[in-house]
Specification:
Layout: H1 27-30, H2 32-51, H3 63-74, H4 78-91, H5 94-106, H6 113-118, H7 129-166, E1 171-176, E2 179-185, H8 186-206, E3 210-211, H9 221-226, H10 232-243, E4 247-248, H11 259-288, E5 291-293, H12 312-334, H13 345-350, H14 353-373, E6 374-376, H15 378-386, H16 393-402, H17 408-416, H18 423-431, H19 437-445, H20 455-461
Parallel strand pairs: 3-4
Antiparallel strand pairs: 1-2, 5-6
Helix pairs in contact: 2-3, 2-5, 2-7, 4-5, 7-8, 7-14, 8-11, 8-20, 11-12, 12-14, 16-17
Amino acid sequence: MPTSPPTPLSALSPLDGRYAAKVAALRPLLSEFGLMHRRVQVEVEWFIALSDAGMPEFRPLSEAARGLLRGLVLRFSEADAQAIKDIERTTNHDVKAVEYWLKERFAHAGNAREELLGAGEFVHFACTSEDINNTSHALMLQAARAEVLLPALDRIVAHLTAMAHTLADVPMLARTHGQTASPTTVGKEVANVVARLVHARGRIAEVRLLAKMNGAVGNYNAHLAAWPEFDWEGFARRVVEQQLGLNFNPYTIQIEPHDCMAELFDAVTRINTILIDWSRDVWGYVSLGYFKQRTKEGEIGSSTMPHKVNPIDFENAEGNFGLANALLTHLAQKLPVSRWQRDLTDSTVLRNMGVALGYALLGYDSLLRGLDKLEVNRDALADDLDHAWEVLAEPIQTVMRRYQLPNPYERLKALTRGKTITRDAIAAFIETLELPEPEKDRLRALTPASYTGKGAALAARIGT
């Protein structure tokens, strides 16, 4: 067994092994490196803000000192993260290790060295670890949402919108309960998915990520002990909202209660569920022959059946969305629950945000690759429709109802239910009806392929 650092072949998680390249965009944001990076950012911004607060003991930092501190954030590297990890081996406390690392940087601050060393005890001033952690987690999720998740979803929506427009008027036999039903169009069925995704995407985007900087139990106890006349709540709000770009939560225990995280994870679960539904539908359409899949030179569909081109991308997407939703659901249900003013059960769970969203991203990638391979099979669609003349029972009986002919539903049921119906059988039935001749002409001209209602128009307008 390998004892050296894991390789793609020895990684325990497939996200860090087989699929590492596909989730690489999340790694700098939601890994332990990403968490350390954000902790440094929060500590730096709190330290700079304190210098501007008007405390006689901590004068405003020089521009050189500010530039050096923010440069530590901007140029934060894996070597820096490893240095913090090395300190943690002694402290056995990950946030305290960040504080000590920052103070060590002050000793190498050039012209700002004496200034920063003299203010060293204002690093992490009046903070509990969760003041740093909750803001860091919020910043991590904010970046992952804006830089990775929403762009991935937008690519799917754009692809499906183009599909809906291109295939807007391609008729397709619908199948309610798996049985032949009133025809639709391929584009309209795709447009249905687009409409759902756009709504669900909006829910993800609009979740307000909250943060707090209010001490050990949320009351600014240590803050007021040090400087009782200062408006610490207003100060904390300014740091959270203006310097960190998050939304301030004024009422918390030791931890920010994570309701906003639960809301975000529920929203991602919802869009993943929509995409599971779509993945399964496409799988079924491929099975029916409605879609063909473009082949790639050298690829093998089955180890024993050379003819096969399996819909594996949609199967992979479905499987990874299921994994993502299982983890996201646990995160959403567990994180808002904390015993009394704080327990530590959220800490280890939060380290799996990247795993949960990594499986979601893997699903988006698989789905998009599958969509890129699809080709509509117009011949199969047309043949299916041509063998489903029974679907015209619906429009014929509805016209009969309009003209108040007796027992329209029952007469069509007797003609069609459980029987193979042909064009000639439908035409012969129309001839027996006491309808105005123009109405008969309209029904005679109707075919399963032309009986699609507003399907084409609805598909064509999606996204416009």
